[in-house]
Structure formats: structure tokens, C-alpha cells
Design a protein that fits this description.
single chain, alpha/beta, eight-stranded parallel barrel, two-stranded antiparallel ribbon, 14 helices, 10 strands, about 15% strand
Length: about 325
Amino acid sequence: MQIGPYQLRNQLIVAPMAGVTDQAFRNLCLRYGAAMAVSEMLLANPDVWDTDKSRLRLSHSGEEGIRSVQIAGADPDAMAWAARYNVEQGAQIIDINMGCPAKKVNKKLAGSALMQNPDLVEQILKAVVGAVDVPVTLKIRTGWDPEHRNGVQIARIAEDSGIASLAVHGRTRQCMYKGEAEYDTIKAIKQSVSIPVVANGDITTPEKARYVLDYTGVDALMIGRGAQGRPWLFREIQHYLDTGEKLPPVTVEEKRQVMLDHLTKLYTLYGEFKGVRFARKHIGWYLDQDAQRDFRAQFNKLETAAEQYSLVECFFEEFISELDKEQITNV
């Protein structure tokens, strides 16, 4: 898949997820085989940029791979300004968010709320594309609600406005993340435009990845929640796409090393105080099984990096032996 001058090495992209796809997570997914990782959403409002969270999102120091930065907003001029500013800071691709279903974003008529206003969508897209000399991509949903799936209309506007590629989550805004993603609309979008189209939603296994590619005919897949606590999913999917065979389950030792590496990256990125708090969420995803409830409860009470690191080590040294092989596979 080609995005402007950038040739992706495969068909797998990390979806932008607020509070999740920070640099630590993005780099981990890239090392496990993702071709590109899109940054967390940044509001096109410089008044809210003077925070530690926004400064980290604006910084690309230590970034691996193609630097794709997602911006969100409802004002064409503000979006154009934000795009230019991020390019000046090192962004190589600007991604526009019209897929976020969160109320706090939608109440400002940004994110997926924009799909209700195709005229404004066109104004924003043309303003951003005209403001920068790097590729501009777009992420949308299939529509505002199941009765108003206008993804094909928005896709055609995107193509006419100069958007370099389009990612589509297979749910409407009203659906949030409930139920199952549908791919008929994504298939129709792919058939209606000539720009690259990326499918997103419920791609959690190698078999599902193969199915979505074959059914929709899209150019690439965007994977989000399926990779939380499972960055090796990209390696598993790519191997299956290449060979038709599944890799053996990740070993306990590799999971241990990935978790410890992720902790180190979080502490380095945020500092110990905030890193410890972000780690609670990520480690919970790695160990999201009933058998590990006691561990998670204990981990979430810890206040230092050393304590967290030590508990993970102890978990694998002392507790794994108590689990049977099936439980070990699902740690």
C-alpha cells in the first residue's frame, strides 16, 4: 500500500486510540510487524496543547517508522493550522479524525459527528490538504447511525478533496463499540473510490484478518483494540497472510519480556509517577483473565516502578507454575 511517497512494508496499521497508542505502544507494535502506527488524537486547539499529555503527543523524538499524526476538530481554519504546525514538528502524514464516537468529542461537532455534515467535511478536508505538502489521510465510521450509513458519500468527498487514503471502522457512531463490525459498507466504499481503503473493526485473529481482506477487497487493515496487550498480533497475522499457517502461541518467556519492556518504555516516556499509572492499564490488558484478578488488584496498588517491575517478575517466576497449559497460553 502506498500513501503519498511512503510505501508500507505490509498491510497492517496500528489504529489511533486515545490514551493507548502512545509512543511506547506504537513502537512496540512496529517492532512486532506493523507497517505504520498512527498517533493518538490531538485536538486542533492550541489552547489545550500546554499540557504534558499534549506535549508528548506533539513530540516525535525517538519515534520509529513513519510519523503519522492524527488531528481532530470542526473548524477548517483551525484544522489547517494544526496540520501545518504538526508538519513543522516532524509529522510525515496528517490523519484527520472523523471516526471518534466519544461524547466529549462529538459534542464539539468533531470526530464522527462530522459525518452528519458532508459540506463541512469537504471544507475541512480541502483546507487541510491545501495547507500541507505531506499526504493527508482520513478515518471515518460507516455513518452516524444504522439508518444513515453515508460512508460511500463521505469517501467520494474524500477522494475528490485529495485525501491520500481512507480508513473505515465498520460501525456507526451510534453503535459505539457494541455488537459486531459490519464490512458490507467498507466493501461498498472500496468499490466506489480509487484511493487506498483500510478496514478497521473487530480484527482480532489471523483468520479474521484474512477474511476481511478477501471479503472487502481493501488495501490494508487497521488494528486497534485487538492488539491491546497483544502487540505480537501483527506478527501472527502477517505470518498467516504469508503462509496460510498459524504461528505457535507466544511463549511465556516472550510475554514476560514484552511486559517488562513495555513497562520500561512507559517509565521512560512519562517519568515514574505517571508511567506507573499508565502501566496499570496496559498490564491489565496483558493479563485480562479471571485467573489473574488477584495479581491485577495487587499491581494496581503499587506506587513505584521498582515495585511494579518486581511483581511482574515474581508473577512469572512463582505464579505461572500454578497454571495449567491452557491458562498459560492465555496469560
